[in-house]
Give the backbone structure.
Amino acid sequence: MEKVSLDTICVQGGWQPKNGEPRQIPIIQSTTFKYENTEEMAQLFDLEKSGYFYTRLQNPTNDAVAAKIAALEGGAAAVLTSSGQAANFYAVFNICEAGSHIIASNEIYGGTYNLFGVTLPKLGIECTFVSPDATDDEILAAVRPNTRAFFGETISNPGCRVFDIERFARLAHSVGVPLIVDNTFATPINCRPLEWGADIVTHSTTKYMDGHATQVGGAVIDGGKFGWDAHSDKFPGLTTPDASYHGLTYTKAFGSMAYAVKLTAQLMRDLGSTPSPQNSFLLNLGLETLHLRVPRHCDNALKVARYLSADSRVAWVNYCGLTDNRDYAMAQKYLPNGSCGVLSFGLKGDRATAVKFMDSLRLISIATHVADARSCVLHPASHTHRQLSEEQLKEAGIAPDLIRLSVGIENSDDIIADIEQALDKI
Ligand SMILES: *Cc1c(COP(=O)(O)O)cnc(C)c1O
């Protein structure tokens, strides 16, 4: 498709039917694909021709939806995964191996923090976490000869910190490694990290991209511009022959598609984590309205954040769209049209006050989820982090009174009225 607006890509990107073909993207619910002769199939196995042979590697429904997401992010190629966790794992593991090291912002999703801090070390990949507020010198001091990537989230879950993509990209490039950015909360509607210098973008498509809580999924998008060959010593997996494909070299054979082809041909082949075509179909239905839903989430969240800020029963509100937020200036730079629908706040009182408030909500449901069309809340101290003492909660940077609110796309007056009646009960 020619370069068109994001709105149009949301609706029509990825799948352009030919004469007489279905208007909606077909769900190719098949594990396998048939060929007339052995030679044709052999060429597919050797990556000499592109085509489908087994859904663990590639499937037409998945590919069409991946193409839409690649277009939305302005990337060279995208690969869908079966979860956001798999996307972040693959994004890193595609260029790391035992003995590698990465640097990640410490303001990231808990699942990713665990993946990098606990699970990757078991595979021999170490991670140094740095504060997004660290100085350039402090960040560069964390770099080692074996550092292979930098990582951060455009808007962190749940801290709502805005990542200085341009600065981290400059630092990563100064030491010859790519910057990977998890763009789940901002979505390409509000920020396109590749335009700010990021090299690889990841998503939990489970969140706004789907938007209706129907499927768990992820995506890895390659900008296609990082110079792997210029740093060949660091990325031999991409720049030297792959014995599992008769000595093919990804950068030579596939150019700007090298990273994405390797991720599919090696990681998907050996580790799986492919989404089902049915799930990709559902994801695509969500994407068709992403450009309409995201601004509504942001408008509603800003109204709710302002309402909470003005209420005397509320102790504090953290939303990067508020002018007095510590990341407001950063949000203005990277997210001028709005940030996301997720905010956190605390009530004056104790844990019991927060519980009473949440239990009194009617429209807003209690759910372990964010970025859904329906408004929902979570109280980490009572739910995701309930095993921790008040002391441990503080160490983990989670205030005992922190309530995470994911503002949906209902009418904002109704959302605020629900909050008000719950506040009246505490
Ligand atoms: C939810 C989330 C993930 C993990 O995604 P899953 O689809 O739940 O595996 C990763 N990053 C961010 C920012 C998230 O919000």
User: Anything to note?
Assistant: The first strand starts at residue 77 and ends at 81.
